[in-house]
Design goal:
The protein has 454 residues and is mostly helical. It has helices spanning 15-26, 29-41, 45-73, 77-84, 91-127, 133-142, 145-163, 166-193, 198-206, 215-228, 235-240, 250-277, 287-299, 303-337, 341-361, 378-416, 426-453. The chain has 17 helices and no strands. Bound molecules: 4-fluoro-L-phenylalanine (PFF).
């Protein structure tokens, strides 16, 4: 492990470094902000069960698929498809990934900026008696400059880490930040589950209500699986390209899935018991974390301390994911266009910041614009397109590529190189050829029907 390949491509310095970096990409706002509110909106444990099925039938096979494509080609997503299918249009799948990374990071940095701002806003929100927490949040996001400033700060941190390189930037920060994240999460859970009345929240979280399950729920679960595992846009192709054939792959992929799913489930235990114990509702949607939780912290013993910790957790999780999004675009510019890493990171960071501005301004200067059928604001619209269309489409096309063009036998052989724990078998080929494409197509069609046509 470590060092460079024959063409001078940097490699991860250790197995743990790679797992933590990939898990850092996976664990993000998706786990701590999106997963709990999706669960709250879609009937608690019923959503979780569907989500877990999606993870095992679609998530794991696709994670392996992307890592193999990256490792075997040692390239960014566009270069990977070009290398395996030269002179065909398949490179467009990689290009779709790079484009999706662009779009996701542009609005991801907006929400990440809110969470950075809340590391200190939560102090005011919990200290001021009788404050209306909806007003605080709406006041923050609808002010013109403040959210833009936090978004810019967040993008600057992201660019700084990517400019430092794979090992000295991505791996180093993932190795520092992921353990911190885990410790904070455990502290928050211990606080939440020991509040009097916490049991009701645990029951809500654990008791399935299938009455609320619709086509939108299924699409919600599948898009959450894609988003949470950083699938369908080439992050794992890119991170896989810094692995060597001597490195373990099937078990590493399983570790990443396990850490990501575990942290999403644990985040629910940090949130729902506290929300219910202090008499609040769980179905608040995207505002759950920014409106309901500060109100919860305001009433909790040592709430300021836990409030700061929570928003630090959210910001750290967002940062290790954002770097992976920027790395895809950066790797593409370095490999395909011969750019220097620093220039690529800075230029792309700036462009992505600008592309994200309409999502921020959607709550202030551009308020009132929305895409018919897709919720109420521009950020929702970015989110819907990225998660419900681009990511599943990217995953679907990558599966079809491995399943029918490159061939699953070759993919399995490549994935098993360097493995020490367990080997992929034909079951993986079956999932990639049949189960993954069929499920993605059916569920995308159902979700689009529910969103627009019904
Ligand atoms: N997986 C990240 C999260 O759960 O917040 C978000 C994300 C990162 C999505 C990278 C997609 C991606 F390529």
């Amino acid at each position: 492990m470590g060092g460079f390949n024959d063409n001078g491509r940097e490699h991860w310095a250790s197995r743990a470094g790679f797992i933590l970096a990939a898990a850092g990409s996976a664990v993000g706002l998706g786990n701590i902000w999106r997963f709990p509110y999706m669960t709250g909106e879609h009937g608690g444990a019923a959503f979780i069960i569907i989500y877990l099925i999606a993870i095992f039938l679609i998530g794991y096979p696709l994670i392996v698929n992307e890592m193999v494509l990256g490792r075997v080609t040692q390239r960014n997503p566009v270069g990977a498809f070009k290398a395996l299918a030269p002179k065909t249009p398949w490179w467009l799948v990689g290009a779709l990934g790079v484009f999706t990374g662009f779009v996701i990071l542009s609005y991801y940095a907006v929400v990440a900026g809110w969470s950075l701002a809340y590391v200190y806003k939560v102090v005011i929100a919990t200290r001021t008696a009788g404050i209306d927490h909806t007003d605080v949040f709406v006041g923050h996001i609808s002010s013109l400059w403040e959210p833009i400033g936090w978004q810019a700060l967040f993008m600057t941190l992201t660019v700084g880490i990517i400019a430092a390189g794979v090992v000295k930037g991505i791996q180093r920060w993932a190795t520092i930040l992921m353990p911190v994240l885990f410790i904070i999460l455990v502290m928050l859970i211990l606080r939440a589950v020991t509040l009097p009345g916490a049991g009701e929240g645990v029951a809500y979280y654990m008791k399935p209500d299938f009455g609320e399950v619709t086509g939108r729920t299924l699409l919600g679960a599948i898009s959450q699986a894609f988003f949470s595992l950083s699938l369908g846009m080439g992050v794992l192709i890119t991170y896989g390209s810094y692995l060597s054939p001597k490195d373990e792959l099937p078990a590493n992929a399983m570790c990443v899935v396990g850490i990501d799913t575990g942290i999403a489930l644990l985040a629910g235990f940090a949130i729902f018991p506290a929300v219910f114990a202090l008499g609040f509702q769980a179905g608040a949607g995207p505002g759950l974390v920014f409106i309901t939780l500060p109100a919860v912290f305001a009433q909790m013993p040592l709430g300021i301390f836990f409030g700061i910790l929570f928003f630090l957790l959210l910001s750290i999780a967002a940062l290790t994911s954002a770097i992976s999004l920027l790395e895809v675009v950066t790797a593409w510019l370095i490999d395909e266009k011969g750019w220097h890493r620093k220039n690529a990171a800075i230029c792309m960071g700036l462009v992505i910041f600008i592309v994200g501005l309409p999502a921020t301004l959607g709550y202030s200067a551009l308020g009132g614009f929305s895409f018919p059928g897709l919720g109420t604001d521009l950020l929702d619209t970015y989110d819907w397109f990225a998660n419900s269309i681009f990511l599943p489409l990217g995953g679907l096309l990558a599966a079809i590529f491995a399943g029918y063009i490159w061939g699953t036998r070759k993919a399995i052989e490549e994935a098993n190189k360097g493995r020490t724990v367990f080997a992929l078998g034909n079951w993986w080929g079956f999932l990639i050829r049949y189960v993954v494409p069929v499920l993605i197509i059916v569920i995308m069609a159902m979700g689009i029907y529910d969103s627009f046509i019904k």
